[in-house]
Amino acid sequence: MSSTTEWVTLEQAHQALRSVAAQLGDADWARHTPCEHWNVAQVLRHAAGDQRGYAAAITGSGGPTEDPFAPSENAPESAQGYLESALSVTTAAFATVAPATPEVPCPLPIGPLSAEQVVDAAALDAAVHAWDIAVAIGVPSPLSDELAEQLTPIAETIAGPLRAFAFGPAQDSESGDGAAARLLRFLGRTPDWKP
């Protein structure tokens, strides 16, 4: 397998997460988020842990340092450093996955998926949590319609089995929704959510 595979959609999603992490201030960590019962610190920790989960599924190492579904409420010492550590491990793991590989290990409870599907699932997780943080702290959403269009097929593949614990019930699209709003509604989020 190639050791230098580049996955553009994953990099775009990682960049979305980086962009909001770079805007976090001390007053932001305790803010409420669209992820009910979780503050900004928990969403960032969860997102980083999920990315590490994808890396560990592929390589057998580099997994989460805490349970991503029970993240600490405390801010990491450095938001960007904490996140970058996770994203670099994930990027390195996916660089070993060749395109069109039919079965790639995946941390989701739906078994192995194709290379493209696993990459897109990791990207979906990063991009949607970037949106969660952005709206919680009142900065522009990094989830573009273009990125949302790329991620919608994997959302349609994995959301059903994961609704019990990862996604809320799908909401009906509304007139004027773009691709990002439609994706968010499909995943049980409210595009115009406010703290």
UniProtKB/TrEMBL annotation:
<dbReference type="InterPro" id="IPR017520">
    <property type="entry name" value="CHP03086"/>
</dbReference>
<dbReference type="InterPro" id="IPR034660">
    <property type="entry name" value="DinB/YfiT-like"/>
</dbReference>
<dbReference type="InterPro" id="IPR024344">
    <property type="entry name" value="MDMPI_metal-binding"/>
</dbReference>
<feature type="domain" description="Mycothiol-dependent maleylpyruvate isomerase metal-binding">
    <location>
        <begin position="10"/>
        <end position="134"/>
    </location>
</feature>
<dbReference type="Pfam" id="PF11716">
    <property type="entry name" value="MDMPI_N"/>
</dbReference>
<feature type="region of interest" description="Disordered">
    <location>
        <begin position="55"/>
        <end position="76"/>
    </location>
</feature>
<dbReference type="GO" id="GO:0046872">
    <property type="term" value="F:metal ion binding"/>
</dbReference>
<dbReference type="InterPro" id="IPR017517">
    <property type="entry name" value="Maleyloyr_isom"/>
</dbReference>
<protein>
    <submittedName>
        <fullName>TIGR03086 family protein</fullName>
    </submittedName>
</protein>
